[in-house]
Amino acid sequence: MLVNACVDKYSLIYLIRIFATLTPKLLMDNQLKTEGKFSYLERGEGTPIIILHGLMGGLSNFEGVQNYFPEHGYNVLTPRLPLYDLPILKTKVSSFAKFIKNFIDHKGFKEVILVGNSLGGHVGLLTTKMYPEHVKALVLTGSSGLYESAMGESYPKRGDRDYVQAKAENVFYDPKIATKELVDEVYDTVNDRAKLIRTLAIAKSAIRHNMSKDLPKMTQPTCIIWGKNDNVTPPEVGEDFNKLLPNSDLYWIDKCGHAAMMEHPDEFNQILHGWLKERGI
Question: Do residues 75 and 48 lie in contact, with contact meaning Cβ atoms separated by under 8 Å?
Fold first, then answer.
């Protein structure tokens, strides 16, 4: 499969950006609970927090949150989104929002806290818009939904692993986070025809679902945690989310790129836990 076959440049640029929020899959399948169409991690008891991962199902991206909050009275769940399981015409952000609503119903929750990074933040936003009665609070970090920065005029050619590596490294403040395993997985996925087609469908759906007109109507308490050095969703995106959302608070993490919960997990958890206490959530 040619990476650039029948693909417009900006969609491909967008998907490579989201790809690079991956980490190697540290969580084994036997740690997942499987109930019907849902596969998920679950830890702790108390107020439910549902984590929304980014593209390609990097459940371990939120390992710090998964380990910290169950010790502080929260039931932390990380469902695996059906990114590559749906028919192509249903592979879109709104379908993932419906999937999360069905998961909430499956677990019997009345209200939940949604926490999302990148595409996961976008899913959280759309879930909040579509099913506001089920969202107690929303947490966004490096979220899509407004816009993503362009990456220049070039795009990957067939077999161009160096390009993928360079763009993956650019996602993080510390390029060492873009390990060989991460880059290999991104590279393999963009060269897998079935996955690439669905990834492009997701990317185009995310671009179409701009949330700017919806945000002022979303009154749920929202915690925005942003990397000061985010090259994917730059600081002004976090500022715009904070301006448009009527009940939000914005926090910055220094020397941090697009994945704050990975790059600075302790600081991320301290900010989020402090905000939840302050808001009484």
Answer: yes
